[in-house]
Amino acid sequence: AKKNGGACYAVFTPRLRTAAERHQKIRLKLADAIEQERIELHYQPIVDIATGRVSRCEALARWTDDELGPITPCEFIKVAEHSGLIHPLSYLIVKRALSELREINSALIEPIEISINRSPVEYLEQTAQQDFILNLSKEMGIPAELITIELTESFMLKDPELAIRLLTSLKDFGFNLALDDFGTGYSSLSYLKKFPFDFLKIDRSFITDITSTADDYQLVKTIIEMARILGMKCIAEGVEDEKQLQIIESLGCRHIQGYYFSRPLNASDFILYLKQAFPA
Ligand code: C2E
Ligand code: CA
Ligand code: CA
Ligand code: CA
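A: This is the predicted complex of the input protein with calcium ion.
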C-alpha cells in the first residue's frame, strides 16, 4: 500500500516485461520530450490561512507520452536522475516555471511566490554560483526572493558540510529554501538546526490519518512545535478535507497545500482559479 507521500513507486506495465525495459524506454522518450519541450507544469496553490489568500504555489512536472500515456513525475524524475537527463530536464522546468510565474503574476494585483522542486543529484557536481536558476531568474526578471527551492533531506545526508555551504550561498543570492517530505527520512532535531531552511513541508503521509490516528496527530504537533522553535515556517501537504484543515490550523501551521483547496492546475486554469476563488 502506498502510504508514504514522500516515496515514489515504480509503475508496472504488463506489456513491458521488466522494469529495466520500461526504464530504458522512458529514458529514450524522455530525451525527446525534453528536446521538444513537451514537459509541462501544473501549479498547486499554497494558502496562507492567516490572510486567507494564496501566497504561493508549487510547480509540479507533467508529461504525457503518445504511446505510454501519462507518466508520473515520480517515475520520470527517477529515470532522469539515473541517466543525466535531470540537468536538461530541470533547466526546462525552471525556465518554464519562471516564465509562467511571470504570466500568472501579471494577471494578479499582488504577486505570488513559487516553489520549484530540485533533485539532490543536480547539486552533486555544482556550486550555487553555477546553478542556472541564477541567470534564468535575472533574464526573466523574477527576483530570487519570489523563488523557493524545495529539496528532500537525502540531499543533506550525503555530504552535510557541502550541503550547508550550498544552501547558505543559495540563501545569500536571495532564494528561499524548503525541506520537502519532512518526517519520511532521518533528520534529527540537532541536524535540522544546522541547515538554513525557511520552510518545512510536513509530508502528506502524516496528514492523511491525522483525524483518526493519535500517533500521527502527535507527530504533526511535534513537527510544528519544532519548526517554531527553529524559526521555520510550516507547510502542510496533502490536506484534503475540512477536518484535517481545522486540526492543522489549531496546531498553528499557517501554510496549507492540498486537494481541499485545489489539485495542481495548468497555468491558465490556475489563473482562473485565483481570480474566481480570490477576486480582487
Ligand atoms: P512532492 O514534491 O512531495 O509534491 C507533492 C505531491 O503531492 C504532488 O504529486 C501533488 O500532486 C500531490 N498532492 C498535493 N496535494 C495532494 C492531496 O491533497 N492529496 C493527494 N493524494 N496528493 C496531493 P505529483 O505531482 O505526482 O509529484 C510527485 C513527486 O514528484 C513530487 O512530490 C516530487 O518529489 C516529484 N516532482 C514533481 N515535479 C517535479 C519537478 O519539477 N522536479 C523534481 N525534481 N521533482 C518533481
Ligand atoms: Ca511528498
Ligand atoms: Ca515538493
Ligand atoms: Ca513534498
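The mean pLDDT is 92. The pocket of calcium ion (ligand 4) is lined by residues 180-181, 201, 237 (CB under 6 Å).
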